[in-house]
Write a structure and sequence with these properties.
2 helices, mainly beta, eight-stranded antiparallel β-sheet, Beta-galactosidase, Chain A, domain 5, glucose-6-phosphate 1-epimerase activity, 39% strand
């Protein structure tokens, strides 16, 4: 049986807590600030179960996957990356950096067969976390096989806010989006307005040329602005369950939905990543606060 090990990284600028299970960043707290990365008061650590909060690594499929232009039914939901123990690289650790690795040889053929990548998909993934005045999280995947490798990926970041119904998310005003709360997931035109929250919001923003534009969260309750810079992410998912769904979630306490918003770096659906043999791709997210 694997052991749940939480690693604390502390320096003069900030602190973070990271679990080997899922290579999961649980918290990040800049010096003199409330936490920026959110976790619930009671975190469930159970093998085979995803950790709520923090920064789950979604890989190698999002939700239950996508194939041939239609949703499919891959399991586990959101891939096996977030419910696997990653290898901690002892040679790369400092008080500002940690590295984890994950290899296809760690998994059985039944899981790998769900990848849209030929008969014998092979890959290795590296996850680097830089911790200082900002936190930078970088997922790098290399195709070690002889056939193209196609996968979906996301950094599903939970960000701590004073009250989600009082924040505004800027930087996605000019982007069309898919409304995941509606039947058929309709394609919606850009609103030209910042995102605000009154009930459930679950949208996949199609960023295009705006993919490197910073996203900001204006938080009048905590009196700060969180800046999010995604790279290698053609989409951004913005999610909060709202009161009805949030209070019904078994791994959240009543009212905890109000204290977070998810702003995710995403490559999924028709913007999934396809790597030729030997090719590498990087998806990253950097957070800072002012």
């Amino acid at each position: 049986m694997n052991t749940f090990l939480l690693r604390d990284v502390v320096n003069a600028d900030s602190s973070a807590s990271i679990s080997d299970y899922g290579a999961h960043v649980l918290t990040w707290t800049p010096a003199g600030q409330p936490p920026v990365i959110w976790r619930p008061a009671a975190v469930q650590l159970r093998e085979g179960t995803a950790i709520r909060g923090g920064v789950p690594i979604i890989f190698p499929w999002f939700n239950t996957g996508w194939d041939g232009g239609r949703p499919v039914s891959k399991q586990p939901k959101h891939g096996f990356g977030r419910v696997s123990f990653w290898a901690f690289d002892e040679t790369a650790v400092t008080d500002r950096h940690v590295r984890y690795t994950l290899d296809s040889t760690d998994f059985g053929d039944d899981l790998l067969a769900q990848l849209n990548s030929g008969d014998h998909p092979r890959f290795h993934a590296t996850y680097d976390v830089e911790i200082g005045e900002r936190i930078a999280m970088t997922l790098t995947v290399t195709n070690d096989g002889d056939e193209p490798l196609t996968y979906e990926a996301a950094l599903h970041t939970y960000l701590h806010v004073g009250d989600v119904e009082r924040i505004a998310v800027h930087g996605l005003e000019s982007c069309d989006y898919l409304d995941n709360t509606q039947p058929g997931v309709p394609h919606c035109s850009a609103t030209g307005e910042p995102i605000t929250f009154d009930g459930m919001v679950d949208r996949t923003y199609l960023r295009g040329d705006e993919a490197d534009t910073p996203i900001t969260i204006e938080d009048p309750v905590l009196g700060r602005t969180i800046e999010i810079i995604n790279a290698g992410a053609p989409q951004a998912v913005v999610w909060n369950p709202g009161q009805a769904a949030g209070d019904a979630m078994g791994d959240l306490a009543v009212g905890e939905w109000r204290g977070f918003v998810c702003v995710e770096a995403v490559a999924r659906l028709d913007r999934s990543v396809t790597l030729a043999p030997g090719q590498t791709n990087t998806l990253s997210q950097t957070l800072s606060v002012r």
